[in-house]
Amino acid sequence: MRRPLRWLIPAAALPVLGLLAYGFRVNPHDIPTPLIDRPAALFALASYDGPPMNLEAHRGHVVVLNFWASWCHPACYEEAPVLERNWQAYRDRGVVVLGVDIQDKPEAGRQFINTFGLTFPNALDPVGKVSVDYGVYGVPETFFIDGKGRVRAKHVGAVTDAAFRREVEQLLAER
Amino acid sequence: MTRPARVLILVVLVLAAPALAQLPATNVDDTQLYEVASYLRCVVCQNLSVADSPSEMALQMRGIVREHLAAGESPEQVIQYFVDKYGEWILLSPRRHGFNWLVWLAPAAAVAVGLTIFVVVVRRWTRRRAHATATPVPIDPAMRERIRREMDMESDR
C-alpha cells in the first residue's frame, strides 16, 4: 500500500475519536435552555391552598419558580427544606418562591407539601402546559426570574442553599 | 328576498369573513397529530418520539400538540413552539442548516470514503494476484543451482 493511503485509514478515524472524546466529556443532562433573558411565560394555576397562583401578580419581585413532583426522590425531597428555609429568609426582601407540581396526583402532591410543611404557594400543573412553556425535561428544575419578568437562570437538580442565595442575591442587587 | 335583506346578509357575510377564516379547527386529524408528535423528542425517554412514548409527559405533550393544532396552527408553527421552549434539542432529527449539515453529511461522507478505500484496496490486491500468475518471477541462476543441489541432497538421504 502506498504511503499516503497507509495513513488515510488511521487519519479517517481521528475525527470519530475526537467526537467520541467530546461526547464523553459532555454531561447529557446539561441541556442548555433557550429561555435565558427571555420573558418568563405567564401562567395562572389553581394552587393547593386555594387562591390562584398567577405569575403576573408577582411582577416586580424576584421569583424562584421550582418544578417538582412527589415521586421525584431523592432530589425533590432534598431541596424541599432548602426552598422553605430560603423562602422564609428572603420573603421580606421581595422574593417569591412558587412551586409547580408536575405529572403528579393531587393527593400525593398535597401529602408532599404537608410532609415538608411548605408554606410558599404550590400548584398542580394538570395538563403539563406550564412545564412545557418552561422547557422542563425533568424534576427538579428551578428558574430564577427577575423583577422585570425575565428568566435569568436555570438550575437543574436539587437546589442548594448556596445556589439559591447566589442567584437571588444577584437579582436583588440589580433592583 | 327583498333587496334590503340581501344587502344585510351580504354586509354580515363580509364583516364575518375574517372571523370565520380565523375560526379554530375543532377536529384534529390523528394522522396529523401523530406526524407532528413524531418530530418531537419525548423529554423523559431515551430516543423515543412524543408520538411513540407511553409516558405521561409524552401524553401531556401530545395533548398540547392537539390543542395548538385545534387552534388553527400549522404543523411547522407547533414544532416551532416546542423549539422555542426546549431549543432544537427537542427535535429528533436536527434541522438542515449551518453546522447541522455535518450531522446529515458525515455518515454519507464516511460511507463514500470507506467504499473508496475498499475499492482501491480490492483492485490493488486483484491486480497484484493477476500479475503474479501471468508473469513468473525470474529466479537468479545461482539460486536455481543452489535449490537443485539442496533437492539432490535431500533425495540422496
Task: Give the SSE layout.
The complex is a heterodimer of chains A (about 180) and B (about 160).
Chain A (H helix, E strand, L loop, with lengths): L2 H23 L18 E3 L5 E3 L7 E7 L6 H16 L4 E8 L3 H11 L5 E4 L3 H5 L7 E5 L5 E6 L4 H14 L1
Parallel strand pairs in A: 3-4, 4-5
Antiparallel strand pairs in A: 1-2, 3-6, 6-7
Chain B lengths: L2 H19 L8 H10 L16 H15 L4 H12 L14 H34 L6 H16 L1
Helix pairs in contact in B: 2-3, 2-4
Short description:
Chain A is an alpha/beta fold. Chain A is built from five helices and seven strands.
The protein's oligomeric status is heterodimer
Output the helix-strand order of chain B: HHHHHH
Q: What distance lies between the first and last C-alpha atoms of chain A, to the nearest angstrom?
A: 70 Å
Average residue pLDDT of chain B: 83
The tally of helices of chain A reads 5
Q: How much helical structure, as a percent, in the residues of chain A?
A: 25-40%
Estimate what percentage of residues of chain A fall within beta strands. Answer: 15-25%
Label the structural class of chain B.
mainly alpha
Main sheet characteristics of chain B: none
Q: Tell me about the largest β-sheet of chain A.
A: 5 strands, mixed
Determine the mean pLDDT of chain A.
93
- The number of E-state strands of chain B comes to 0
